[in-house]
Amino acid sequence: xxxxxxxxxxxxxxxxxxxxxxxxxxxxxxxxxxxxxxxxxxxxxxxxxxxxxxxxxxxxxxxxxxxxxxxxxxxxxxxxxxxxxxxxxxxxxxxxxxxxxxxxxxxxxxxxxxxxxxxxxxxxxxxxxxxxxxxxxxxxxxxxxxxxxxxxxxxxxxxxxxxxxxxxxxxxxxxxxxxxxxxxxxxxxxxxxxxxxxxxxxxxxxxxxxxxxxxxxxxxxxxxxxxxxxxxxxxxxxx
Length: 239
Fold this sequence. Notes:
A 3-stranded mixed β-sheet has the order 1-3-2, covered by helices on one side. It starts with a helix and ends with a helix. The relative contact order is 0.14. It is mainly α. 62% of the residues lie in helices and 3% in strands. It is built from 10 helices and 3 strands; from the N terminus they run ααβαααααββααα.
């Protein structure tokens, strides 16, 4: 009886030790991930893997991800400028989270919800406040969808990225993993797919149009832009 009691105590102690070690192991592994990718260009992202597996799951056996890494200095200067103008104009000064943009987005969304309820119509044009750092974390390491677990991991990876990478590296990775069309990831693949040229040869207007579809690249089309994309593209160029 005493032997069984001692054995159970030792098992519980091992479990408690693992419960203490697991958070430390998580911190170490994720920090190592981010530290390595400061110097090593990612061969793929979590979103790319998810899209490819989703295509195969639906029997799209011929579907292939378009992805071709290009360093930032091998892209036209208008590409990173367009991304910042379109997605995160306070990118150079915030530390991963733009609380001013969050406040403005909340106020805007409350107005949109109130108007929709007054008209008894669906809510339209809700505004997000994700920074380029947050979007890089999400695209590179996580999955699409909405959940508190995913948002928590996104925040953690954002902190790591902002701590371990310079701003230029964050922008470089984002320009390469952002989705510009269904299965088209990165500025180089987008330039080749939509304009038949390298990212280095993109004009300011072409870079602005690529950035203009980023809110929903599977809904908006670079090749055949509708009125919304055209207006947004013009606004990005003015910025």
